[in-house]
Design brief:
CATH architecture of the largest domain: 3-Layer(aba) Sandwich
Radius of gyration: 23 Å
Helix content: 25-40%
Oligomer: single chain
Distance between the termini: 38 Å
Strand order of the largest sheet: 1-9-8-5-4-2-3
Strand content: 5-15%
Structural class: alpha/beta
Order of helices and strands: HHHEHEHEHEHEEEEEHHEEEHEHHEHH
Number of helices: 14
Number of domains: 2
CATH class of the largest domain: Alpha Beta
Shape: globular
């Protein structure tokens, strides 16, 4: 096995030349003639929305994309909506969650995973994470289930699948619908079956930074005919397929996606199928190289993840290998090397002001006593994230490996340097 390069030059933060200097970055999102042609076809068709009956929707550009995307993930039904948060709201409502109910959600994710719950009047209950994988801990999910729990919402954080074996079993045991938040997991598979097709509904985002994007947008997948009918109705102003167009039967949203977005997504799907495999190969290479250097390790490999889409390539920092240099300072030093790394969302969801200041009817803070020690430790001490577009750039990945090796070789000097420059920033 080829060994990782040992880059012994002085770190850029100490005056050396950045390891990523001169490396060209990937433009995102990729696009070209196919996208232009698809958009022009929609323009000239004169049909820019995809409303009407389910049959009319199925014949639309967006309808064709829905079927292709659902097939790629192994689901029977797909319904495009306005964005990923809307997809979560829609799935929760269609699954029967109502005002006053509780939904178990992950502490480690983007805030929208949890804010979708109070948006429909329910209460989020946070579950802790697993230290080696950063995914929601099935034991913590089960401990969070109470008499008012009406659903479980789990995220595939970074595109790494949560433990669907255990989570689907406990959902069935407690007779609770399972909603998968797959905003990071376009293309991911668990045991050969796509993320989003294991629970009652799978929700995806097509926001600009995602691996599959139309700027904005989302989709809900399901294998249930009953749930698919509810999803259709709730996203289409409460209409029922069997009734008149101006008969409305549910209090519901207009969450319809436009044909413009559907046209872009149809072409982007062709690209992402190929790019997912490139990212996976490069991620496997990067993981091996980081293992050789030590101190900044990939997430623990799980062979049940048979294909991995990416939003983040997530890593575990061990300060002991870097003279106990604080994680924030280590990230700062890597960024000085010109490397696009960060700390992901920086804190557990409940630490965001929207939840930290949320109060009940008596004015008491709802989450003042919520503790998720593993997620808090991950955010404060170990989590370092590389965006998925970097996985298309092998020279940049080599620069990351070189940069980590360089910082490790100069760890003592860096630690001394930062002793003289106290970190006054609040911990995540």
């Amino acid at each position: 096995m080829k060994r990782a390069t040992s880059h012994t030059g002085k770190p850029a933060i100490l005056g050396g030349s950045p390891t990523a200097h001169g490396i060209k970055r990937e433009a995102w999102p990729p696009h070209g003639v196919p996208e232009r042609k698809a958009l022009l076809e929609v323009l000239e068709s004169g049909k820019w929305w995809r409303g009407g009956t389910r049959r009319e929707m199925a014949q639309s550009v967006t309808g064709r994309f829905e079927r292709e995307f659902a097939k790629w993930h192994g689901a029977r039904h797909g319904l495009c909506v306005t964005n990923g948060t809307a997809a979560l709201e829609l799935a929760l409502r269609a699954a029967g969650v109502e005002a006053g109910d509780e939904v178990v959600v992950p502490a480690l994710s983007f805030v929208a995973t949890a804010t979708a719950v109070p948006l429909i009047g329910a209460r989020a209950v946070f579950a802790d994470a697993v230290a080696e994988t950063y995914q929601t801990d099935p034991a913590a999910i089960e401990a969070a289930i109470g008499p008012r729990t009406r659903a479980i919402l789990v995220v595939h954080y970074g595109g790494y699948c949560a433990d669907l074996d255990r989570i689907t079993k406990l959902a069935r045991r407690h007779k609770l619908p399972l909603i998968e938040d797959c905003a990071h997991a376009q293309g991911s598979q668990w045991r050969g079956r796509g993320a989003g097709s294991w629970g009652d509904a799978g929700c995806f985002s097509f926001q600009m930074s995602k691996a599959l994007t139309a700027g904005e947008g989302g989709i809900v997948l399901s294998n249930s005919d009953v749930l698919a009918e509810k999803l259709y109705s709730y996203h289409h102003l409460g209409r029922l397929e069997s009734q008149g167009f101006y008969d409305f039967h549910r209090v519901a949203w207009n969450m319809r996606m436009t044909e413009w977005q559907g046209a872009i997504l149809g072409e982007q799907l062709k690209r992402v199928k190929k790019l997912t495999l490139v990212k996976q190969r490069n991620a496997e290479w990067l993981a091996k190289q980081l293992d050789l250097v030590g101190g900044l390790l990939p997430l623990k490999r799980d062979p049940r993840i048979t294909r991995r889409g990416f939003y983040y390539f997530l890593m575990r920092y061990d300060a002991r290998d870097f003279a106990n240099l604080p994680k924030a300072r280590f990230v700062e030093a890597l960024q000085a090397e010109g490397l696009p790394v960060g700390q992901a969302y920086g804190r557990p969801i409940q630490k965001n002001p929207v939840f930290a200041e949320m109060r009940d009817a008596r004015g008491r803070k709802l989450y003042a006593k919520t503790r998720t020690p593993v997620a808090e430790r991950i955010c404060a001490q170990t989590q370092i994230a590389l965006g998925h577009t970097a996985l298309l750039n092998r020279p940049l990945l080599q620069a990351l490996v070189d940069g980590v090796a360089r910082l490790k070789a100069h760890a003592g000097e860096l630690a001394e340097r930062f002793k003289e420059k106290p970190d006054t920033r609040a911990a995540g």
